[in-house]
Amino acid sequence: MTQLADRAAEIARLYEDSDRAAFGRPWTRREMLLGFTVAVADLAKLVQAVEGVRCIPRADERLEHELADCLWSLLVIAGLYGVDIEQAFLLNMDQLEAQLKSQTG
């Protein structure tokens, strides 16, 4: 696992402990996905603000945080499903590159 995935998993374990204390159980995989969709929606709103079509104070500053939040969610979800996200990403990029090169060359 990569350094990012390891760090994401470490923070996810802390959230699990916090959720157990507060709610009696950690989030399920489904709830993690729902949380990710909320983060993506927040990201979309911030992008709109940065593009000047929504008023959100300090949107530029908050965009960085929300991108990191989305990345954390993806890393955690990948881990929950046993996906080596780094390997999957690199394979996907290789496939896309080959496809695009075959279309243009």
Q: How would you characterize this protein structure?
A:
The structure is a single chain. The protein has 105 residues and is mostly helical. It has one domain (3-104): MazG-like (Helix Hairpins, Orthogonal Bundle), CATH 1.10.287. Helices cover 81% and strands 0% of the residues. The chain has helices spanning 3-23, 29-50, 59-80, 85-104. α1 (3-23) crosses α3 (59-80) and α2 (29-50) runs antiparallel to α3 (59-80). The longest helix is centred in the middle third of the chain and has 22 residues, at 29-50. The chain is flat, with a radius of gyration of 17 Å.
Summarize the structure.
The protein is mostly helical and 105 residues long. The protein has helices spanning 3-23, 29-50, 59-80, 85-104. The chain contains four helices and no strands.
Features:
105 residues; Helix Hairpins; 4 helices; flat
